[in-house]
UniProtKB/TrEMBL annotation:
GO terms for biological process: tricarboxylic acid cycle. The keyword Mitochondrion does not apply. Pfam families: Citrate_synt. This is Citrate synthase. The active site is at residues 355, 411. The keyword Transferase applies. Pathway: Carbohydrate metabolism. It comes from Pisolithus tinctorius Marx 270. Gene3D superfamilies: Citrate Synthase, domain 1, Cytochrome P450-Terp, domain 2. GO terms for molecular function: acyltransferase activity, acyl groups converted into alkyl on transfer. Keywords: Transferase, Tricarboxylic acid cycle. InterPro entries: Citrate_synth-like_lrg_a-sub, Citrate_synth-like_sm_a-sub, Citrate_synthase, Citrate_synthase_AS, Citrate_synthase_bac-typ, Citrate_synthase_sf.
Length: 515
């Protein structure tokens, strides 16, 4: 039987009445925007009981435990709203469906970052600045050339954002003073100008760095971002345009003047809409990482590099790559029932399904299916489409997924479009990062402009490890052994084995030894 709940006198106001049954004390916790401040609970103290551990810090106030941020609001935000039960996504109040239909990526970027739809002249100023800032320093050629021949593009891109920060001393609070960006909250025009410049650079150079990560593996020279194109056209140009000195191009044209290159309009528009859909998604793992990192006030390039690393995981932006790997492994619609049975036995994961917030279909997935049709009409359908459809339909009829409210998310379909457009699988997360840079900078800027200032994000933990104990000398220790309890013995490569077996030493002295 559950414990009897003490009767609390009913008074209707915006507060929560809490009784601490350890002390009998009653507290009134204020409710704002249907949320309670976790810090309030610090004032709820009790004497440690006879079995209490000092590490529980019972006398120093109650802690709020929330593994994985399941119900913790870390910021007040005016950027993006999601209603996961009703499948609603809005940027600054505008429904995603309307933006996908009518807007462009850079217009949405303006909206997300600055809060309102721009006028024509505001938009053209913003577009000009972003596209102008796409050009990279020539040294970046050496940087990208230093990666291993088969480096994952996400490893290159994550490093590239950190590298980018090394160029801009004026954007580094460690060098310029820690109020460099927070003084923007007071409307300091110079500080705002400096912040905007970093925003133009980050968005402008995201395509350039991504294209460099792509071309280095194709063995192609890098191209300078073109002029007179939209953001996504420019990106496709930077990925695909063959300059006169590229081997293929050189064989077809001896001229050194740049050849005209215009990406296919359907593919450019499809990518633009995909970029709109991926631009922001409120407190997802990578945006939270950008804010967490940004809260200790490093330069924004370091914060974006951290976000990029977070996005790469297969539970987040790496899911688009994981979906295609999964579909390839399933192979054909006939194998779908067996695959779903393995998912239900928890031996496999159905990538592209499920979401922390959406408990119905992700609204972006409907828009993406429409874009997929447009793209397939130009490129031809992807051979994995039948398997994807069979998997989708079977999962939506299966009680395991229905009862857990697991529905397709944005990543279920996006990978099929990217594949049809000819992108390599490991480039898919990069195609997520480029537009998400906008969301990251929008959140970072909002935090820097906060009138209350920036608080370092320093969460708490519940310590469950050993209480204080004294150091034990080697002779008195008992070995703690077993998998996970001591460093593993690892398998060495053939090369390491050969080296261990070899004899080394100085030829001059004739002294030999085993390595
Ligand atoms: N396949 C099979 N079972 C699943 C899946 C899935 N894709 N997703 C959730 N579940 C199960 C989970 O095992 C749990 O079952 P039970 O209650 O019996 O233990 C239940 O559903 C609730 O899931 P959860 O793990 O508590 O959900 P979460 O909010 O912690 O995780 C998620 C959300 C997106 C990480 C998870 O659904 C998942 O791993 N999905 C596959 C990866 C994926 O597609 N990620 C892209 C997300 S959308 C775009 C983005 O954010 O980048």
């Amino acid at each position: 039987m559950g414990q009897e709940t003490p009767k609390v006198k009913q008074t209707r106001n915006n507060s929560l009445a809490v009784i601490d049954n350890r002390t009998g004390k009653q507290y009134s916790v204020p409710i704002t925007h249907n949320s309670i401040p976790a810090t309030f609970f610090k004032s709820i103290r009790a004497p440690a009981g006879p079995d209490g551990r000092p590490e529980d810090e019972t006398e120093r106030g109650l802690r709020v435990a929330d593994r994985g941020f399941l119900n913790t609001a870390v910021i007040e935000s005016a950027i993006t709203y999601i209603d996961g039960e009703r499948g609603i996504l809005r940027y600054r109040g505008y429904p995603i469906e309307q933006l996908a239909e009518n807007s462009t990526f850079l217009e949405c970027a303006y909206l997300l970052i600055y809060g309102a739809l721009p006028t024509r002249s505001q938009l053209s100023h913003f577009e000009r600045e972003v596209l102008l800032h796409g050009i990279m320093h020539a040294d970046a050629t050496k940087f990208f050339g230093s990666f291993r021949y088969d480096a994952h593009p996400m490893a290159m891109l994550t490093s590239a954002f950190g590298y980018l920060g090394s160029y801009y001393e004026e954007a580094n609070p460690s060098l310029q003073g820690q109020t460099l960006f927070t003084k923007c909250a007071k409307g300091d025009p110079e500080a705002l100008q400096n912040m905007d410049k970093q925003i133009y650079r980050l968005i402008g150079k995201a395509t350039t760095l991504a294209a460099m990560a792509y071309r280095v593996r194709q063995g192609r020279e890098f191209v300078v971002p073109p002029t007179g194109m939209s953001y996504t056209e420019s990106f496709l140009y930077q990925l695909d345009h063959l300059s006169p000195t590229d081997s293929f191009s050189a064989s077809v044209s001896a001229s050194s003047s740049p050849s005209p290159y215009k990406p296919h309009p359907v593919l450019a528009r499809a990518l633009d809409v995909l970029f709109i859909l991926h631009a922001d998604h409120e407190m997802n793992a990578s945006s939270t990482t950008v804010l967490q990192t940004g809260s200790s006030l490093p330069d924004p390039y370091s914060a974006v590099a951290a976000g990029c690393a977070s996005l790469y995981g297969p539970l987040h932006g790496g899911a688009n790559e994981a979906v295609i790997r999964m579909l390839v492994a399933i192979g054909s619609p006939d194998n779908v029932p067996g695959f779903l049975a393995a998912v239900k036995r928890r031996e496999k994961v159905l990538s592209g399904f499920g979401h922390r917030v959406y408990k119905t279909s992700d609204p972006r997935s409907f828009i993406i299916r429409k874009i997929a049709n447009d793209v397939f009409a130009v490129t031809g359908p992807d051979p994995l489409l039948d398997t994807a459809m069979a998997l989708h339909d079977a999962a939506l009829k299966d009680d395991y997924f229905v009862s857990r409210k697991l529905a397709p998310n944005v990543d279920f379909w996006s990978g099929l479009i990217y594949r049809a457009m000819g992108f390599p699988m490991d480039f898919f997360p990069v195609l997520f990062v480029v537009p998400r840079v906008v969301g990251w900078v929008a959140h970072w800027r909002q935090m820097m402009l906060s009138p209350e200032g920036v608080k370092i994000w320093r969460p708490r933990q519940i310590y469950v490890g050993p209480s204080e104990r004294s150091y034990v000398s080697f002779d008195e220790r008992e070995a703690v052994q077993g998998p996970g309890k001591e460093p593993s013995a690892v398998v060495h490569s053939g090369m390491a084995k050969r080296r261990r077996l070899a004899e080394v030493g100085s030829l001059a002295t004739g002294v030999k030894s085993k390595l």
